[in-house]
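WARN retry 2 of 3 for item q-0093 after timeout on previous attempt; input resubmitted unchanged.
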Amino acid sequence: MRLITFISAGTFIFLSAFNMKMTNSKQKNLLFETKWSLNRIHTENGIEDVQTKAFIKFDKEKQSAGGNGSCNNFGSDFILNKNKISFKNIFSTKMYCDGVQQIEDTFFKELEKINRYEVKDKTLFLFDGKDLRLEFESE
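OK item q-0093 returned
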């Protein structure tokens, strides 16, 4: 009886680990195959709903990300390891756009802090540690 319990427990652990690996792989694929529209920015001052054309896309081959911050186009290198992600060398064009500049500035500032991500259904969540910073919806 103990042997059966031991084998059952081992099988459960193995299948759980396999499922986690498949989930991480699926999350990575969704990350790269999608245009992500910025919906919300979370800061110490609260949550701001975003109603602009801000978005981000990820290029797996080039290990780069880019998109639009609300006014300006931007780009960045990124480092990805399982569910950890960080953005490096963020750059953008430098136009000023009345009405959306504050959103763009906050978006870029928060993007620099990101070190973890999750994909759930059609939503991409970017975190600074345990703190949610940016929310995107897939198009």
